[in-house]
Amino acid sequence: MLNFFKNIKGDKAIWAVVALLALFSFLPVYSASSNLVYVVGNGTTSGHLVKHALLLFLGFAIIYGVHKIPVHFFKGLSLIAMPIVLVLLVFTLAQGTTIEGANASRWIRIPLVGFTFQTSNLAAVVLMIYVARYLTKIKNDSITFKESILPLWVPVFLMIMLILPANFSTAAILFSMVLLLCFLGGYSIKYLMAIIGTGILSLTLFILTAKAAPDLFPNRVDTWISRIENFANPEDTEADYQIERAKIAVASGGLVGKGAGKSVQKNFLPQSSSDFIYAIIVEEYGLIGGFVLMFFYLLLLFRIVVIANGSQSIFGKLLVLGVGLPIVFQALINMAVAVELFPVTGQTLPLISSGGTSSWMTCLAIGIILSASRKNNVREQNDAEIDDTNPLEVLSGQL
Question: Given phi > 0 = left and psi -120 to 50 = alpha, else beta, which region is 101?
Answer without folding.
Answer: left
